[in-house]
Amino acid sequence: MDGSSAGESVSIFTWNRAGAPPRVTAPLDSDFAAFPPIPIRSIRHPERETEKRSIRSLQMESPHDVTVREFFFAPLPTRAEKIEPSERASKRTAPPDGSFAETNRSELERLEKVTRLKVPADAIKIEDRLHYILAPPLETLLKSESLELPFAPFAYQKQGISFLYSSHFAILADQMGLGKTMQAIVTVRLLLKSGECRRVLLVCPKPLVPNWKRELALWAPEIGVEVIEGKSSRRKWLWELSDVPVRIANYELLQRDREFFDTPEFRRERSFDLVILDESQRIKNRHSTTFEAASAIPRVRNWALTGTPIENSSEDLVSIFEFLSPGYLKSGLAPRHMRDIVGEHILRRQKKDVLKDLPPILIRDALIDLDGEQSESYRLAAEEGEIRLNQLGDSVTMTHAFELALRLKQICNFDPATGQSAKFERLAADIDEVAQNGQKAIIFSQWVATINRLRLLLKEYHPAEYHGKIASAKREDEIRRFRDDPDCSVILMSYGAGSVGLNLQFAEYVFLFDRWWNPAVEDQAINRAHRIGAAGPVTVTRFLCLNTIEEKIDKILEEKRLLAETVLSGARGIEPSLGLTQEDIFGLFNIKVAKRK
Amino acid sequence: MSTPSDPSEYLGFLSVSETSSRGFLGGFLILNRSGHPIEFHCTVPVHANRAQEILYGETLGSFLCAQQIAPSLYKHKKTSVAAVITDAPLLLSFAPALDVPLILLLDPMPAGIRTALPGVISPRLDEICAIGRTDPALWQESEDEGIRYMLRAENSKPSVSQKLRPFRKLIDLTEPFDRIYLAVKESQKGA
To answer: Are residues A344 and A400 in the same domain?
Structure first.
């Protein structure tokens, strides 16, 4: 390694705040003004000042200058280096005899408590990298008086905050229930305080707007929040004029209001410093109007929050990245190659990895044999349906097959002629036990009609309801009743309305009365109960009627689960199987057609 | 070289580490009271030549660190500081050249002491001074709100304690040395 010899001048590399790029926007709080902002790639750094300093030598040699090392062109790793605290400590201090481990446990423990800002993979210049390396650890930032938090974050949550803080485009893909919302809010709070952001837009599904407002009030009470809603004129005003730091919009609104923000003037003067897409699987189809509207939002940096970045196929992930950083992730790559490309920009943790103390989750399949009239109804419907599909010949479409699948699934729930339900007989016994023990249960179905039947059959347990037929304003009341009323042992939920964003960790039981088409949605549903704050084990019962279409669908769901694991968790050797494709739908039935549309 | 600034607002952290090739690297970090970095300076590895090795013998490390690296780093600063904290006993003899107190943190025990005194759990002041090639009579030990450190005898303990107090609200005084280590390591990449 090159270096200086004593007696020559000592080469010095200097970093100072003056060399840091200008902040994006004005700070909100002068206390944080000293913290240099994240470098923006589009902003050119001023040239680093390099200095040479001759020092007096005690030797007889004449002092002479040593060429100052050029740090601009130093080759840097392509991936951000992850240095384990213990590794740091041992490298710095370990004597050759290895006695370090015994004598320095306290130092190791101290290092473990420190969460450093992540050096982004796209920070190439030494000045940019030192910006992150020299920044205070997250614990110091959070200790600031104006950043008191209602609860101490878990270590993995602090790592998530560190990850987001340094990221210009990123997906926080933690499994549901690990606190993505909290991590995003605390990071936003830090960015607002440091002056690196001033205008933040949060986009989420409409039912989750109250949840985000509540969480923002909890984790960032001093930050002004405005929900974009109301009449067109008010919404226009909120988009253009409101000066609150955080705005919340819902996905449906984006399409309606695109005319307000997708303008040259807005782009020039009111661009957002940060846009966060919650439940970003909403933009998994990059040909959808939702994707187009979201992509049209003028912004500097963006994050996506989702527990399921891949719901159906790896193309879902391509779409999300197309929003985050257009062109960064190409379509059609092998899962392992894709993982290598996006690895630096996705942070995904699973409960089993980070929450050792989280109560266990027990998943059991309740295998049901249809019998009596219900079995007969199913047999007739299946046979008749397949005959009709075959009769359609080449004109059969996926819609035809899908309609039959829905019909058969409904019969698995309740016999339409008699109301008989083998599933309910099993459910009733379980719910009775839940209620007797003073516990709470969530029951999911994909149909409101099924929920209506269950409401009547379970009326002695005073069920609460949370689904598309319940007005948004009333849903919070239903959640409150389920939580607070000891007589209310059950809440009936639809997958669509109740599978995301709700905190129901006081429920000990989850029943999936029928199965959704996508395992990710089922996982989200389960995680309403199995999340941080869960006091005890969560038992999940998945109803499955044997020798029916439900059994076939279950097999497909397992295959889709494998696909997600291949891309996101690094499993090797598993080639992806696409999700519920047209072939899968047709494959549910015994039909013989030459051409399927 | 320093620009006008209120020294009580800033604290310097000075460290050296030995390289595998028997050279030394130095790093100097200035933080404000919130722990945010203001300045950072580091050296490339500094090696002794053969004549210096013969001339300085066992005092070579102290010579390189306290008389070559530290003064050079310190003179480059543009921000005045309230004190300079170090975790390197080899820098002790740099103290007389400073216009502010030099404070050697003792808890957790610095690597330089652990390496020089293997197996010693509570090194005495004279043992530490021997590492730094300085007279123990010129030094005193202090314990202040849970941290132990050494400072020159002429420095007032209450005064130093008062200088450190505003920083200790937010900064763990040992933590910035990890930043220095990581930053020096980063600056050496590709060298």
So the answer is: no
Are the beta carbons of B67 and A58 separated by less than 8 Å? yes
B146 touches chain A (CB under 8 A): no
- The alpha carbon torsion through B120, B122, B128, B130 (nearest 10 deg) reads -50
ipTM: 0.92
- Closest to B189 (Cβ–Cβ): which among A2, A3, A74? A74
- B101/chain A closest Cα distance in angstroms: 22
Question: Helices in chain B by DSSP H: which ranges?
Answer: 50-56, 60-62, 70-75, 111-116, 125-132, 157-168, 175-188
Q: Does A476 fall in a domain?
A: yes
- Taken in order of first residue, the domains within chain B and their CATH numbers are 7-183 (3.30.2170)
Could you tell me if A54 lies within 8 Å of chain B, comparing CB atoms?
no
- Amino acid present at A336: R
> Among residues A354, A375, A409, which one ends one of the domains?
A354
* Chain B interface mutation, best of A2, A11, A13, highest count of B Cβ atoms under 10 Å: A13
pLDDT in tens, A402-441: 889 999 999 999 999 899 999 999 899 889 888 888 888 9
Q: Is the dihedral of CA A281, A286, A288, A294 positive or negative?
A: positive
* Residue A97 near residue A91, CB atoms below 8 Å: no
Reported as a single tens digit per residue, the pLDDT across A335-363 is 778 888 888 899 988 877 777 667 777 78
Domain contains A78? no
User: A12: exposed, middle or buried (C-beta count within 10 Å: 0-12, 13-18, 19+)?
Assistant: buried
- pLDDT of A508 higher than 50: yes
Residue-wise pLDDT for A486-502, tens only, equals 999 999 999 877 666 67
Q: Judge if A349 and A401 occupy the same domain.
A: no
Contact B36 A135 (CB under 8 A): yes
Together in a domain, A517 and A385: yes
φ, ψ (nearest 5 deg) of residue A272:
-80, 145
Pairing of the two strands A4-5 and B46-47: parallel
pTM comes to: 0.65
Longest dimension (CA), chain A: 107
Contact A7 B178 (CB under 8 A): no
Q: Are B38 and B30 in contact (CB under 8 A)?
A: yes
- Rounded-to-integer distance, Cα B144 and Cα B164, Å: 10
Indicate the residue of A6, A73, A93 with minimum beta-carbon distance to B52: A6
Domain span at residue A499 reads 361-587
